[in-house]
What does this fold into?
Amino acid sequence: MKILHIKSSILGEHSVSNQLSQAYLSDELNVDQQANVTVRDFAEQSIPHIDGALLGALGTAAEERNSEQSKMVAFADLLISEISESDVIVLGLPMYNFGAPSMLKAYFDQIARAGSTFSYTENGPVGLLNDKEVIVFATRGGLYQDTPQDTQTPFIRNFFAFIGITNVKFVYAEGLQMGDEMRDKGLAQAKSMVEKLSTVAA
Ligand SMILES: Cc1cc2nc3c(=O)[nH]c(=O)nc-3n(C[C@H](O)[C@H](O)[C@H](O)COP(=O)(O)O)c2cc1C
It folds into this structure.
């Protein structure tokens, strides 16, 4: 079992999504001690935004790339191979200013590549990363679950479906900035949602 742990919070060890996803993983690793975890932590290494330089590098034949272009493509290749090789993706997903962290969007831009993670067909795009599971730990200061203001859930589902992954489960911890009582309630809800998840090792 290969697990990719994506930490998209900027808060490192203070991040609630990091803490919740790590606690979940620690429990799963007790069950499956052979599991192999790769961590992609955006607080440790930034994900560059897609720009004209990266698109230009991707559009240049490998043997004609300069060293800067080769470096850019090598990093995107690494991100694609990390997710392609994983069986389970555990994603920490904070809400920042009503949406996903901008580095998570940048990450998606890095890994959405025709021929690698999806392909174009006469019936439209088809995802190439099948048979994977995603577990999302969504942390929010306020309350959004099941409201039209929750732009994150459809965005995340749509993106993973685009690359072929439709088995996506969400754990929500909400009300984290609404006082101690609401925070405790939000964390308790997250805990009970985790208990209902089928385990990674199952
Ligand atoms: C820059 C920033 C923007 C935020 N924007 C929102 C927001 O739009 N809505 C909300 O409910 N909470 C917002 N929050 C609160 C976070 O969602 C909350 O602190 C959550 O714990 C973040 O996850 P993390 O601890 O894993 O980083 C914001 C926090 C930060 C640091």
The first strand starts at residue 2 and ends at 7. The mean pLDDT is 95. The chain is about 40% helix and 20% strand. The helical segments are 16-31, 52-58, 67-85, 102-111, 152-162, 180-196.
